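Provenance

Sequences were taken from public entries as deposited. Structures were produced by running a predictor on each sequence independently, with no templates supplied. The record for Terpene cyclase/mutase family member from Prasinoderma coloniale is shown for reference.
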Amino acid sequence: MRSIEHGAAFFGTLQDEDGHWPGDYGGPMFLLPGLVITCHAVGCMDEVLPATHRAEMLRYLRNHQNEDGGYGLHIEGHSTMFGTVLSYVSMRLLGAPRSDDACRAALEWIGARECGVVGTPSWGKFWLALLGVYEWEGLNPMPPEMWCLPYTLNPMHPGRFWCHCRMVYLPMSYVYGKRFVAPRSEVTDQLKEELYASLGGYGAVDWDAARSACASEDLYYPHPFVQDLVWWALHRSEPLLLPGGCLHWMRKRALAEAMKHVHYEDENTRYIDIGPVNKVINMLCCYIEDPNSLAFRRHKARVPDYLWVAEDGMKMQGYNGSQLWDTSFAVQALAAAGPECLDNFAPYLRAAHDYIDRSQVRVEAFGELGDWYRHKSKGAWPFSTQDHGWPISDCSSEGLKAALTLAKLPSELVGESISPARLAECVDIILSYQNGTGGFATYENTRSYPWVEFFNPAETFGDIMIDYDYVECSSACMTALAAFREQHPGVRRAEIDRAIARGKDFLLSIQRPDGSWYGSWGVCFTYAGWFGIKGLLAAGETYESCAAIRKATDFLLSKELPEGGWGESYLSCQDKVYSSLDYAHIVNTAWVMLALIACGQMKRDAAPMHRAAKVLMGLQLPSGDWPQQSIMGVFNRNCMITYAQYRNIFPLWALGEYMTALKEAA
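Predicted structure for Terpene cyclase/mutase family member:
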């Protein structure tokens, strides 16, 4: 109990005055360069990124350079051409000279590869082309005409893609279609000389051959032959769409259509946009359309939403934060400590309650949703803030569970409960997310077929083309529906029962023969194991009744480290095979504890839980904090991302459940 109280006291000091827990959501190394390149291209560097910001960004880039001189896709990854080229370009644009030690080492890394700079993946080529240090002819096409194709009976319409995919390729297609190139400058002239020296100079590059070039370090998703054939055909027809071509009228119409969707996204998210990549490209699109526009000015004002400064420097985050997500987990973690701690924790819970209340999406996105390929939003909870507003299945579910948790506590301590009518709106959203498979995807229903992934143009990321079903999203929705059903048994009971039963069948169908589930949003099998077991428990199964739970338990127990606890490497995510760390990780350990305690491990054999609790308490710092260990978040299979607050939330939660189980066993 002392460990929980000490940890919560420290955690409470991190809470913002509006009730959420701010935290570092960085990790990917390709986000900051996009912002730096865009600011240089449109001439707003000094306005948006003043000297102090640029100094901190340089410090960040220097701190995350690998020993070989390169940069990874993310801060813990091996060196890649994508990370190294964009980091080098960023350092030069931020004011570092070529002679700078970090610049020199990065340039040597690039030059040492046979493919050189043209081996950067397609996203890197895009940034280089608009900067004016690469030719658009060396890029596989990103035709905006896709947005003019019919949606009905067309599985390849971008409106059917996963929303992050379509929201990135939407503004990319506009910039590509316009063939925008930043004004020539002294530094871009220098970059053309520096980056291409190992290839015999800029003029020696075969741009047609460069289109499909990709460094071996970056090639996570090789293009199948059918995709290369499509790119070849589109590339050959591209001159017809350019000014002077007979089909240029189609390009003009397509650009206008794409820009309509850019503006819709901007206005619905208050110029935050769904993520950092499309944020800066949307900003560039607004500049290209009209440098003096109100839209461009509004974009510049919201760039700080994505910036985070920490001990390693200033970075661009993977979202405008993880505010609602972390706060929902924090509420459940603090409440798990039981009534003995409630008086001490009440101020934190009351403030968090206010934040959760204010963050629910209360107004539907404007316009006819189908025209903009949007899922309904009203009643949902977002990942970050109400301004951002994109609804997500698991965020809505964790927000709902947090609200229901708070509703069970005394209102004089934690504030008035959110009304049942508003909670029912969230239930309506959650039910709407279920796919025909019985599973739940992320932002929307699955709108196309897995074979569309054959046309994934991003060599670096996997499974980006459609919104797939996930064990995490499915379990979160099932547990939220079960919690709502417990408090409001008369509301949509039959629909909720049916949804949970179908969700259970989906979880059983995707469990691996060894009892594990693959995690797509956290590292990895330990994270998914927690969700998988909790989902089956929400469906009414038990350890005794369900072979799948027993197999999942056996799998997790088999990965326990000799000294107790669990530690899983991010390599599990990219390789899709369990990869153990050689030390206990507080977050993995907590996830496994939460899974095993929930299915009765303390009654069967408490020894692994005792060892795990000892590990968590032993790793706690004198301040009450826990140390930041290796990265624990992931997206698109191959890119890791930081959830800084996980190191406090999940040990508190696991120890709280452990204490409750100890009391029940006494």
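Residues 125 and 139 are 7 Å apart (CA to CA).
The two ends are 15 Å apart (CA to CA).
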